[in-house]
Structures are given as C-alpha cells and as structure tokens.
Amino acid sequence: MIHAVEAFIVLPGGVDTLEGLFTFISWASESLHNRPIGLLIIDGYFNKLLKFLDDAVRQNFMASSQWKLFISCFFVEELSDKLEFAKAF
C-alpha cells in the first residue's frame, strides 16, 4: 500500500482512524515513506491531536521531518490543492 499512494488523507473518525494515522507516522519514522499526511479539520476535530504532535516535536519525541509531512485544512478543495502542491517536492 505504501508505494501505491501519493499521499495519505485522514478524516475525523474513531480509534481505528487514529491507529491508521499513527501507523503513517510510524512508517515515516522507519523511512518507509515520506508522503504528505493530509488531515481534514471538521469542527476542530484534530486540533488537540495536532497540538500534542507539535509538543512531541518540541520535546524531541517526534522528528521534525515527520511533523513536516502533515498538511491540515478546513476545506476539501484546499486540502486537495495543498497535497497536490506537496507532491511537487
């Protein structure tokens, strides 16, 4: 699956969704991918998680290279555009 995708998109969901998100982060830490991870922010769903991950980077529990993979947006079109732009790099 990793090699067949250009980006990962995560929508608000339950525990299995979060497990998938953390799997993408884990794969990045193991250098299995460097693809963008898009988060669609609906009603602030991922705000506290993004704060947690930002704190993890600042406290050296997560690499900044992993943090840089995240793209979060409030609108589908904006997320799509930003993911498309990220593919160029």
Describe the structure.
- The structure is a single chain.
- The chain is of the alpha/beta class and 89 residues long.
- It has one domain (8-83): Rossmann fold (3-Layer(aba) Sandwich), CATH 3.40.50.
- Helices cover 48% and strands 12% of the residues.
- The protein is built from four helices and three strands, in the order E-H-E-H-H-E-H.
- The chain has a three-stranded parallel sheet with strand order 1-2-3, sandwiched between helices.
For this entry, give a set of tags.
single chain; 89 residues; alpha/beta; Rossmann fold; 4 helices; 48% helix; LOG_fam
Would you identify the regions where 5 or more consecutive residues have pLDDT less than 50? none
**Secondary structure: number of strands:** 3
Strand order of the largest sheet: 1-2-3
Number of helices: 4
Terminal-residue CA separation: 21 Å
Q: How many domains in all?
A: 1
Largest sheet: 3 strands, parallel
